[in-house]
Design a protein that fits this description.
With 485 residues, the protein is mainly alpha-helical. The chain has two domains: 14-216, no CATH class; 241-485, no CATH class. It has helices at residues 2-13, 15-40, 43-59, 66-79, 83-115, 124-155, 159-184, 191-208, 218-252, 256-295, 298-334, 342-356, 359-367, 371-395, 400-426, 430-454, 458-484. The two termini are 31 Å apart.
Length: 485
């Protein structure tokens, strides 16, 4: 009994592991559904679906930064034990989002009706676009409240509950998605997103929204908009960055719908690769926010972020090599019509693996409210991505491989820029930042990629890579033990 109690305490203290494990499993289900959808739906309708999702993503910014301010300030209020302020922030955020997204729903549905009137049911392409655009305001309304509910639960420290309920809702939404795609094809692509968000809101309601009241305090709303707008702008720039490659395809490719559909495979690889380090960083972001809110010690903040970053980097390296080897095999077996996206996928996941190691470093600018630097960093990445992706497509070759190379390079440069700016801003050792971020992931990725390219037999290459990863992990563990001892 005592052993069981001790084990439970250990699991509770390792909350980020449980959250990450749940996220990996949920990501696996989403990955399977993605593969299944590409088996059932051709690349051209898939490209239309991708284009509609881009529009939905931009709709997220109609909340003018209120949700961004909430995600930053709510955990700090909890850290100060100022529960009245925390509840006020929650009430204002819910009220503001309800007002804004209801208005967006009315206006956008009216636009779809008048813009595609007379074409629905006659022209297949326009019918697909009309349906996808009509789903956008519904999905963003549900997704915004689902995201708020899930983050609220985690900010309250209920990571394990978030992980468990997140897993259950993903399983349910997965089943709904499979059935709808099988029956309705293209139209069923939207089912999992809608059902997942709706189930999430229901599951997290008690902890996140119960007791919430509508609060029309416009002065407080104004304060939250002013406080969150820089974060919103930064997030908007990030969205542009994440969609630059897709915009390049839409702008410069003759058959953009089909190319965008094939590029959904690299995007799927990107999403799979980034999800694990992103989830870990979100959990650690809350932890360092609590830490900074309690003592405002910048050196301790950077040291703690460095420790968490080293963990993230090691996991990112393992995930990158795993996806690099497995993704082409999956595509060849289950999505043979999308094999043209294999090389672009491998290129992208290398770039994002390097970038993902410095996610938490980027969050430091948000924690200490260096809003100008935060925006400048994102603008730099946006410019990098635009220049590299466009230049390679126009000057070298109009292929999705060039788009992937440009995107990967821009993320790597952004990662380097973050470390340089942190070194200058806080007089922190640059080499220490590199050792905690790039070193672990590159120690695994470089040998893994070289073995893949040089050794003809993929199983032997995988064996050498696995051995290298184990050696690197052992060295990192030994160094950490020595540092802590």
């Amino acid at each position: 009994m005592r052993i069981f109690t001790t084990l439970l305490k250990k699991l509770k203290s390792a909350d980020f592991i449980l959250v990450t494990l749940s996220t990996v499993i949920c990501s696996g289900l989403s990955f399977v559904l993605n593969v299944y959808s590409k088996h059932e739906v051709d690349s051209r309708p898939m490209g239309i679906y991708s284009a509609c999702l881009i529009v939905m993503t931009y709709m997220n910014y109609a909340q003018f930064g209120v949700l961004n301010a909430y995600n930053r300030d709510y955990p700090q209020a909890l850290g100060r034990k100022d529960f009245n302020e925390a509840n006020k922030q929650r009430n204002i955020t819910v009220t503001f989002m309800l007002l804004v997204y209801t208005l967006i729903f009315i206006l956008f549905e009216a636009w779809v009706f008048f813009n595609y009137r007379g074409q629905i049911g006659i022209d297949e392409k326009n019918t697909f676009y009309a349906f996808g655009y009509a789903m956008c305001p519904i999905m963003i309304l549900l997704k915004s409240f689902d995201d708020m509910a899930n983050s609220t639960v985690r900010m309250q420290g209920k990571y394990n509950k978030s992980a468990l309920l997140g897993f259950i809702r993903t399983v349910l939404a997965f089943g709904i998605g499979v059935v709808f795609i099988k029956i309705f094809g293209y139209y069923g692509l939207y089912a999992m997103s809608i059902s997942s968000a709706l189930i999430g809101i229901i599951f997290f309601y008690k902890d996140s929204f119960k007791g919430t009241r509508l609060d029309l305090d416009f002065n407080y709303m104004k304060l939250m908009v002013v406080g969150g707008l820089p974060l919103l702008i930064n997030s908007l720039i990030w969205t542009i960055v994440q969609n630059v490659d897709k915009h390049v395809i839409q702008l410069f490719f003759e058959d953009s719908d089909n190319a965008l559909g094939v590029y959904s495979v690299p995007t799927m690889g990107f999403t799979t690769m980034v999800l694990v380090p992103q989830t870990i960083s979100q959990v650690f972001y809350i932890k360092i926010s609590h830490l900074y809110g309690a003592n405002h010690d910048e050196k301790e903040l950077l040291d703690k972020a460095g420790y968490f970053t080293c963990i993230t980097s090691a996991i990112s390296g393992i995930a990158c090599v795993l996806v690099f080897y497995i993704m082409p095999i999956f595509v060849g077996i289950f999505m043979p019509r999308y094999t043209d996206g294999n090389v672009a996928t491998q290129i992208l996941i290398i770039g994002v693996a390097i970038y993902s190691t410095t996610m938490l470093f980027g969050n430091i600018f948000s924690v200490v409210k260096l809003n100008k630097s935060l925006i400048a960093n994102s603008v730099a990445l946006c410019i990098f991505n635009m220049i590299f992706s466009s230049a390679l497509v126009l000057l070298v070759e109009r292929s999705i491989n060039m788009v992937a190379i440009g995107t990967g390079l821009s993320y790597a440069l952004y990662s380097l820029l973050l470390m340089i700016k942190l070194t200058k801003q806080f007089n922190y050792p640059f080499l220490k930042l590199v050792a905690n971020s790039w070193l672990p992931v590159l120690s695994m990725v470089i040998p893994g990629v070289l073995f893949y390219l040089i050794i003809p037999n993929i199983y032997i290459a995988a064996g050498f890579t696995l051995f290298t990863i184990l050696v690197v992990c052992a060295i990192l563990l030994k160094l950490r033990i020595r540092e802590r001892g």
